[in-house]
Every structure is written in C-alpha cells, then in structure tokens.
C-alpha cells in the first residue's frame, strides 16, 4: 500500500496497476484529510490502514482509478466499503453528488501527468 499525501504521477499509478489488476488500481480517499491510499488487493485493507492512522470512517470512500484513461474518465466510484445505509448510501457506488465532486477534486489534485 502507498499513502498519497502530496502527489503521484499517472505513470507511477500505471506501474502499480500493471503489478496488480492491470488496467485499474484500487484507492480509498479521505475526503477530510484530502489524502488517499492506493495499491492494495481490497479497498477494506486501504480503509483499515487509514483508520489506523486516525481517519474517520464516514470520511473514507472507495474508488478505482484507471491511469490510462483521460482525467474525466479515470475515476470509478465502486467499492463494497461505500455501502453505508446510515449515510443514505445504499449501493457500492457513491450516490451523493457533493461527495463525488470532493473525491474528483482530491484525486485530480494528487495525480500529476
């Protein structure tokens, strides 16, 4: 796993994805701390890592990043950790548009060409 607190290049993400899932890399974003963890077999492992570092459960959301895609198409909002009925999120996707926008902003600020 790799904690991203500053910047990572698309090429570095590509190399990580090549070692694991091929076209995608799993990530969990902390929408309050504006950080993310990448490169684990399961979003739950990344979530546990961030929780052990002081992140709050309600701030963590799972996504997939496709480094070869354009900036507009590189984020997929799909993870089992996103199923949170108490937050009115009933599916693996992220249903709240404001949370999606925050994630997009954070991910795009952390990934450089």
Architecture overview:
This protein is of the alpha+beta class and 113 residues long. The protein has one domain (2-112). The chain contains three helices and seven strands; from the N terminus they run E-E-H-E-E-H-E-E-H-E. Strands 1-4-3-5-6 form a five-stranded antiparallel beta sheet, sandwiched between helices. Strands 2-7 form a two-stranded parallel sheet. A hairpin with a 4-residue loop joins strand 3 (25-30) and strand 4. It is globular and about 35 Å long. The mean pLDDT is 96.
Using the CA coordinates, give the radius of gyration: 13 Å
Q: Within the largest sheet, what's the order of strands?
A: 1-4-3-5-6
How many helical elements?
3
Number of strands: 7
Portion of residues in helices? 25-40%
Ends distance:
21 Å
| Sheet of most strands | 5 strands, antiparallel
| Poorly predicted parts | none
- Structural class given helices, strands, pairing? alpha+beta
Write down the secondary-structure element order: EEHEEHEEHE
How many separate structural domains? 1
Mean pLDDT: 96
The best one-word shape is globular
Strand fraction: 15-25%
């Amino acid at each position: 796993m790799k904690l991203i607190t500053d910047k990572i290049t698309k090429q570095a993400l590509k190399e990580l994805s090549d070692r694991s899932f091929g076209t995608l890399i799993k990530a969990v974003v902390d929408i309050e701390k504006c950080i993310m963890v990448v490169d684990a077999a399961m979003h739950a492992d990344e979530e546990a890592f961030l929780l052990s570092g002081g992140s709050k459960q309600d701030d963590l959301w799972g996504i997939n990043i496709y480094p070869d895609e354009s900036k507009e198409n590189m984020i997929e909002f799909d993870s089992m950790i996103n199923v949170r009925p108490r937050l009115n999120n009933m599916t693996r996707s992220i249903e709240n548009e404001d949370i999606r926008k925050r994630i997009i902003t954070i991910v795009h600020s952390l990934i450089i060409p």
